[in-house]
Amino acid sequence: MRRTIAEHTAAVRELLAPALQRLREHAPETIPVGDPDLRTRVTAAAILTGTPLPPFDNSQMDGYAVRAADLADASASAPVSLPIGRTTAAGDRIGQHAPGTASPIMTGAVVPRGADAVVPIERCEPPQFGALSRVGDPPPTGSVAFSAPVEVGRFVRRAGEDARVGSEILPEGVRLTPARIGVLAAAGVVAVPVRPTLRVLVCSTGDELLRTDSLGAVSRGAATGLIHDANTPMLAAALRDAGAVVTTLRSGDRANDFRDAVLGSLAEVDLVITSGGISAGAFEVVREALAPLGIAFGSVAMQPGGPQGLGSLDRDGTAIPVVCFPGNPVSALISAETFVLPLLRDAAGLPAERRRERLRLAHDAESPVDKHQVRRGRIGADGRVTVSAPGSHLLSELAAADVLVHLPLGIDHFPADTPVDTWRLHD
Ligand SMILES: Nc1nc2c(c(=O)[nH]1)N[C@H]1C(S)=C(S)[C@@H](COP(=O)(O)OP(=O)(O)OC[C@H]3O[C@@H](n4cnc5c(N)ncnc54)[C@H](O)[C@@H]3O)O[C@H]1N2
Ligand code: MOO
């Protein structure tokens, strides 16, 4: 198998099509609003609120609830003084406001019956609260003076002014961003119907990998030959961002163990993604385990991400797609960005493509003529892009980059100021 990017993209699309079609036919899932995975999901129905937002008339300020009519004649030269009534704090049940009094009220507290406006404490005399009387306390004492009238409704947040009962707080088909999760929670929605999503098994391989739960430990370097597993958290995050539900599997270089672990996980997943163990070495665990099961390995004319594997595993008559990426972390993520994430984002109702822009190179760049090279670039103050070195182990360069920079097949020299296609990496 030796392919161009376009050929491999088409092959991956064809391989994943039945799984994505099954997804569209599934009934929606219902996820609790507190579930951390909700963040990447998309509503499967419009959500109506059963409660008004705000749920009751409440104060926008700390101050005094009054009847506006009582302050109609107030002025700086002739302030109106009112006896202080019972206090309502946020969380207190609704109180009763007596005409001709001023009821202390805190931000968010229910406006007491009989009051129709709030005057902020700093506009009152004295401009701070003294001893307050709440329900159950001895009766309130003292008075407070107002030196200006107040209009009805001032600093009162009306029940339902944000959303009326039965109104749509979220439409169907939108991603559950923080603000949208916030409005669901505010409306007391317990669980939300979401579009079904692909369940992906992310497998990282290699005897060199320290366990993910050792993150935080300093790598012990050449004495051990071990490194931290970057690909599992990275690919899992990328796939979750694309709307997938992810489980992970780490394996050493024993092919039988890896094969058994993957086959043992198939019941729970719709797609298997692997990284590492597919090129020309002597211990290529993914290739050794999966080639006998029909997964094809070969290369795509791109760099990084040259070695690739593709095929499917049988689960009781259903073909579960398997997509194998190279192990170098930059290669693995760029492979995911190129071949898999757009399909998943599209299926999840998200924009399939990264933000694409044509930017000018800030300097000359060289690229292998027989490969489509994907470099990492930073956008300078003049809008031109500076690319970093091509090595596919340079993960900190990837993390620091703003864009992926596409240097197409067939050209080996790109002079400064050449316009190139770029994909925004982090938004
Ligand atoms: N003789 C040849 N050697 C290599 C070729 C080739 O064509 N001929 N291709 C090179 C290219 S390009 C790539 S990309 C890699 C791909 O190799 P594998 O997919 O077999 O990956 P590994 O050998 O297992 O690992 C490569 C590299 O990445 C590191 N790695 C792997 N998994 C992780 C992980 N989860 N977290 C962090 N780092 C990981 C691994 O330690 C290696 O350094 O092959 C080249 N060789
Ligand atoms: O294809 Mo490898 O991914 O160049 O480093």
From TrEMBL:
Pathway(s) annotated for this protein in UniProt: Cofactor biosynthesis; molybdopterin biosynthesis
MoaB/Mog domain boundaries: 201-346
Reaction equation(s) it catalyzes: adenylyl-molybdopterin + molybdate = Mo-molybdopterin + AMP + H(+)
Source taxon at top rank: Bacteria
Enzyme Commission numbers on file: 2.10.1.1
Keyword Nucleotide-binding in record: no
Names of the cofactor(s): Mg(2+)
Keywords: Magnesium, Metal-binding, Molybdenum, Molybdenum cofactor biosynthesis, Transferase
Keyword Transport: no
Role played: Catalyzes the insertion of molybdate into adenylated molybdopterin with the concomitant release of AMP.
Entry similarity comment: Belongs to the MoeA family.
Protein name: Molybdopterin molybdenumtransferase
Organism, as annotated: Leucobacter rhizosphaerae
